[in-house]
Amino acid sequence: MSISRQMREMTEKSSMIRKMFEEGMRMKKEFGADRVYDFSLGNPDVPPPVQFSQVLQAVAADERPGVHGYMPNPGFMETREAVAARLSREQGLPLSAADVVMTCGAAGALNVIFKALLDPGDEVLVPAPYFVEYGFYVGNHGGLLKTVATDAQFNLDLNAIEAALNAKTKAVLLNSPNNPTGQIYPASTLKQLGELLDRAGKQFGHDIFLIADEPYRNIVFDGNTVAPLMQASCNTIVASSYSKELSLPGERIGYIAVHPEMAEHDALLSALVLGIRILGFVNAPALMQRVVARLQDAAVDSSIYARRLDTFCPILDAAGLEYVRPKGAFYLFPKTPIADDAKFCALLKEERILAVPGRGFGLEGHIRLAFCVDEKVIRASAEGFKKAVAAAKEV
After folding, report:
1. CA–CA distance, 210 with 172 (Å, rounded to integer)
2. pTM of the model
């Protein structure tokens, strides 16, 4: 076979999320869209803010010569300045355009970061459960993803992280609010983590970076807030996108921000910019850069997700499923009533409910439910959850 062995192996292990999403499309054709309850894919359905269409039309009307041409690889200066101004408020320290690189979404941002940081065999620690694609992103650049356990509430276990640190550790990757749990890590824990990594860096003779993947930063519930990770360590790198907070996942627009006081700041920025070019991204989409530059204070109405969460929780309660209430993002990660989470997903599928097994996120015995769907879909699934749990008890 002419396809590379690595890609054959990766294809076999590829995302369960996408597989379930594709199965959902098939089932909707067979049973009708209103009779399939698809909670598989985190594809935001809440409309973008009203300003988005207005700004998009204004930007698209610009017909100046060269308006769709190449720009500097890190992005338009106007856009980077706008992002830096917003991040300065969020992170509580002054950032400038020189600290920001525009990217093709958060996935593109993470790949560029790992290209810049990793030598073959370097390790990236990630708390489990974690977003399923992280292993691929790290592996793309010769690194190894190493998981560490979290506590019963999915909070960081600093002892577990400390035990996992070694001379090959290059970075710790955090996602808060977390996909799939919705957990938000407290500022006090992040401060302790930053101090831990700074000590470990001195012990092992090289910096250990703290990488934040933050596409859900502005989707939070119950009065929660997301702590500024740059306050935890000077070796912090933030990756994010507008896929969730502006409901623009298909537009592939995001950014990287580097702590302005990082010792290797200029060298890292140079590596990031080169990474964008040689990985083939070249630059983030020009049209969307101009659009998001004018939308730094806009966000989707996250109260819609909050109402869906309040609708979903009683349904899971009635079915007898245990879960930790998420503080942000738009996922629930309940325990399964049987140890085999894939088997329980199969029982749910018999009720035309699509969920993703927790093993795909590095933690068996759970399922992920994405509640970025209409409330009527959530309500209509109630009896199916009860029947699947009842069937599981008979297995």
Report:
1. 5
2. 0.95
